[in-house]
Design a protein that fits this description.
Order of helices and strands: EHEEHHEHEHHEHEHEHEHHHH
Function: Catalyzes the synthesis of 5,6-dihydrouridine (D), a modified base found in the D-loop of most tRNAs, via the reduction of the C5-C6 double bond in target uridines.
Pfam family, one: Dus
Keywords: Flavoprotein, FMN, NADP, Nucleotide-binding, Oxidoreductase, RNA-binding, tRNA processing, tRNA-binding
Protein name: tRNA-dihydrouridine synthase
Strand content: 5-15%
CATH architecture of the largest domain: Alpha-Beta Barrel
InterPro entries: Aldolase_TIM (IPR013785), DUS-like_FMN-bd (IPR035587), DUS_fam (IPR001269), tRNA-dHydroUridine_Synthase_C (IPR024036), tRNA_hU_synthase_CS (IPR018517)
Strand order of the largest sheet: 1-2-4-5-6-7-8-9
Largest sheet: 8 strands, parallel, barrel
Shape: globular
CATH class of the largest domain: Alpha Beta
Bound molecules: flavin mononucleotide
Structural class: alpha/beta
CATH topology of the largest domain: TIM Barrel
Length: 338
């Protein structure tokens, strides 16, 4: 379903969202509509799209609308855009609004060479004036809330945060999400939640904490240590949408994993055709990681093209009945080229 055909019943506001909400953090190559729907079914409170390039949205609107397709059940859904030019970003924000999204988020964290080279993503952390102009231009262009997701700094957290966050708030950002690693750190080392705490202390808008949130316990600990109103879950959701089930105590059984993986694959096929199943390969490896035979399965998924092949792949696991695996594992196993 295309968002344009739909109407929002209630205007979304970060301010009025209940404390403790857990969001599916934006992940390029991961948080497409199929995965978002699976996470939503498991209790994700707010979901983010993969980042979309603002200039691409203007240059190839039809392609972008297809890329940004979503289902009504995903609401509230926020579209994240990436760019470095205030005018282009404002124009793209209007497109996001016309597509019916509940909010528009700015990527100020992507460490990719190509993105940084174009003065976008984490590069904006070096230029608070331009970043603030982008937020201002977008805020003036649309009625939906504009939010910012950022890292702690480019080379050094100390010279960027929390000053940078305050500037974004003053420019009109209605919520801030912080992944407290610098661009230089990439995904290495521990996320420094003390920086999240410093930001929470200086801004008045809601703050979402990101970084190393791979369990219910980590969500609670991050919120207690930082005072962040919300949690943004990223790698902790890969192969593990159960992380969004707030009441869940036990890890999923292998039967639950099989049914969820198959439902996810069918959605991927329905929404993207055969290419959806190729993109599904990494998800399958994540779902079964930690279960017996997972290493061999990681090789087998590389040859997957059809749903029937996926059904054959998971068949041996059906015999394991109620085997459970705690998906709360170290992030090293989930390192991906982001
Ligand atoms: C594969 C991958 C893709 C990502 N893509 C985006 C993105 O498009 N936009 C964004 O703001 N952050 C992106 N991130 C960062 C995550 O949203 C999150 O902030 C970061 O991974 C830290 O959280 P974690 O330690 O819980 O994974 C990505 C991360 C990964 C692993």
């Amino acid at each position: 379903m295309f968002a344009k055909e739909t109407t929002q019943l209630h205007k979304f506001s970060w301010e009025t969202l209940p404390e403790g909400y857990v969001c599916l953090s934006p992940m390029a190559g991961v948080t497409d509509s199929a995965f978002r729907q699976i996470c939503k079914q498991h209790g994700a409170d707010v979901v983010f799209t993969e980042m979309a390039s603002a200039s691409m949205m203007l240059a190839a609107p039809a392609r972008s609308a297809t890329f940004l397709r979503y289902n009504e059940l995903e609401r509230p859904i926020i579209c994240q855009i990436m760019g470095g030019d205030p005018k282009v970003m404002a124009e793209a924000a209007r497109v996001v609004q016309d597509l019916g999204f509940d909010g528009v988020d700015i990527n100020m964290g992507c460490p990719e060479k190509k993105i940084v080279g174009n003065a976008c993503g984490s590069s904006l952390l070096k230029d608070a004036d331009t970043a603030a102009r982008i937020v201002e231009a977008m805020t003036q262009a649309v009625d939906i809330p504009v939010s910012v997701k950022m890292r702690s700094g480019f080379l050094d957290s100390q010279i960027v945060q929390p000053y940078f966050s305050k500037r974004m708030e003053e420019a009109g950002a209605k919520a801030l999400a912080i992944h407290p690693r610098t661009k230089e750190q990439g995904y290495h080392g521990r996320a420094d939640w003390s920086i999240t705490r410093q930001i929470v202390e200086v801004v008045n808008v809601p703050v979402g904490g990101s970084g190393d949130i791979n369990s219910h316990e980590a969500i609670a600990r991050m919120r207690a240590e930082t005072g962040a109103k919300f949690a943004w879950v990223a790698r902790g959701s890969m192969g593990n949408p159960w992380i969004f089930e707030k009441e869940r105590v036990l890890p999923p059984t292998i039967s639950e994993v099989i049914e969820t993986a198959l439902a996810h694959a069918r959605l991927a096929l329905e929404l993207k055709g055969p290419h959806g199943l190729i993109e599904m390969r990494k998800h399958l490896a994540w779902y079964f990681s930690g279960f017996p035979g997972a290493v061999a399965l990681r090789d087998q998924v590389k040859k997957i093209f059809t749903i029937e092949q996926i059904e054959d792949l998971v068949e041996p696991y059906r015999g394991l009945n109620d085997l459970r695996h705690d998906h709360t594992r170290s992030f090293e196993q989930k390192e991906v080229a982001a």
